[in-house]
Write a structure and sequence with these properties.
2 helices
């Protein structure tokens, strides 16, 4: 009967087994928290890139429509921590000996959007080539004078 009584008392877990189980659990949870944390950080970074690209596309879209297509630079701020810088430069792709049928001026438009995430500066740059018809001054023969 003593053998049966000993086995009946040893049915539970020892303290060492419980401690090992808790160590395995804490290591597993630590790895899982790290994975979720890096996923959230990547989500924040990609959200910043998405907003920056939308802002840069918006700025490029305004050039030539609500903003004159003239050489120069401008800058400003948008939203929470986004800073944009826009430059418009003349672009001369044609050689002097090639004549165009219509007078066209080409401009290289660049928009750079920068912002900070957790102390790191990030930036997105978009460029576009825009064409502008130059006004021509033709003389009209006046039959009266």
């Amino acid at each position: 009967m003593r053998l049966v009584e000993r086995r009946a008392r040893q049915c539970g877990f020892s303290l060492l087994e419980v401690l090992v189980a808790f160590m395995i659990l804490t290591l597993s949870l630590g790895v899982l928290f790290r994975i979720f944390s890096s996923g959230l950080q990547n989500l924040t970074i990609s959200e910043g890139y998405s907003q920056a690209v939308l802002l840069a596309e918006s700025r490029l879209g305004e050039v030539g429509l609500s903003e004159p297509l003239e050489p120069g630079e401008s800058q400003g701020e948008w939203g929470e921590g986004f800073v944009w810088r826009q430059s418009i430069e003349p672009f001369l792709p044609w050689e002097d000996e090639v004549e165009l049928s219509k007078p066209i001026a080409a401009y290289w438009v660049t928009v750079v959007v920068s912002w900070g995430v957790r102390g790191k500066q990030r930036q997105v740059s978009l460029s576009s080539l825009r064409l502008k018809a130059e006004p021509t001054f033709e003389t009209v023969d006046d039959p009266e004078g």
